Amino acid sequence: MPKDDYALAHLRVLMSTGSPLLAERFDWVYQAIKADLDLASISGGTDILSCFALGNACLPVYRGQLQCRGLGMAVEVWNDAGKPVRGEKGELVCTRPFPSMPVGFWNDADGEKYRKAYFARFPGVWCHGDYAELTAEDGLIIHGRSDAVLNPGGVRIGTAEIYRQVERFDEVLESVVVGQRWQGDERVVLFVRLRDGLALDDSLADRIKAAIRQQATPRHVPAKIVAVADIPRTVSGKIVELAVRNVIHDEPVNNLAALANPAALELFARLPALQG
Hints:
By secondary structure, this protein is an alpha+beta fold. The protein has two domains: 2-146, ANL, N-terminal domain (Rossmann fold), CATH 3.40.50; 149-274, GMP Synthetase, Chain A, domain 3. 18% of the residues lie in helices and 25% in strands. The protein is built from six helices and twelve strands. The chain has helices spanning 2-5, 23-32, 112-118, 160-166, 202-215, 241-248, and strands spanning 13-16, 38-41, 43-45, 50-54, 68-69, 75-78, 89-94, 126-134, 140-145, 172-182, 185-194, 224-227. The strands form four sheets. A four-stranded antiparallel sheet has the order 6-7-8-9, with no helix packed on it. Strand 8 and strand 9 (140-145) form a beta hairpin. Helix 4 (160-166) packs across helix 5. The longest helix is centred in the C-terminal third of the chain and has 14 residues, at 202-215.
């Protein structure tokens, strides 16, 4: 463990970004690194040059939560009717202009692309594209990208709830879960990249499904689990669910230049496993 190998007496704050830190990772940090540490999982974006949710050394740390909303950010979570909610999942929005808000995009003279990207969901209100929850402690939980939220049977499911269970399996190096349009509905498809030398068999697939069913809900259980050799991610390391979803539906993928390994998308094209 890091605490056994390094002198960490002067370490006071540890920050995590890229994707929200899962609750189990909070446990690991306090067990393996340091017990008296301000662990700050933060969420913002290159597009806003800032954070909608971040850490605060004056506040307590709650397992699995981003500590607080950022200073100068009028952040709320809205339901489908555009009403603020607490203790339930919805869209992460910023209701007022903020200091670091971009004024537009390059090569978007009339601002149409900019407005479509952030203001189409709720006119005049920045919709960030995260599926989030404002907690009783006034912290935030990010459940995944809202444009990649699963919708089997008309019930919205955050992808983070599935990843939390899959990451418990030592056999799985990484995974990506998407919704596939199927027979007039949507089914959940989980792609896994396994450790070298391992193969996805019925036993492993059944154990993954059982864990998801027990720790989440039956609706979270993937209809298909498919092994792949690689999973596409951005240059900053984020897995690109939306790009995978587009590929399995034979739809174009925008902004391939943002991917660190764009060739990995070919692994998801026209998969026989998804045809039945």
